Amino acid sequence: xxxxxxxxxxASSRRFAIVVSRFNSLITARLLDGALDCxxxxxxxxxxxxxxxxxxxxxxxxxxxRLAVTGRFDVVICLGAIIRSATPHFDFVAAxxxxxxxxxxxxxxxxxxxxVITTDDVxxxxxxxxxxxxxxxWDAAAxxxxxxxxxxxMT
Length: 155
Hints:
Blueprint: E1 16-21, H1 25-41, E2 49-54, H2 60-68, E3 75-83, H3 89-108, E4 112-119, H4 122-128, H5 136-153
Parallel strand pairs: 1-2, 1-3, 3-4
């Protein structure tokens, strides 16, 4: 029978870094609330969480990398909200933020979860930050717990 590796949703012995974009803070504060609620409900002690606020989504990857390479965290959670406007700025920021966050996880070996929402308008962002479509901050934290435990199980 093959050995199956699965991450369990137990955060009791894991350390988490959360990097949050201050830009669009009406949305990102709700994402952070969702992430913290998820961690708490899965047994994470408050002392096992550190939060770093950055100016915008573009700064998430650099800060995530700095935290990942410290060796103090099992996983880094990135939270942000990139909302489309009348210029192509949205496309550049969204693409580079996603690429940078993925790169941090691959380069550091520390899981980095993507809790950055990209929407066409504020209403869509509000929906993804805790109203109609759930809370993507919660989802990113749940993924973080699972990945931390999965990678630990594989070593």
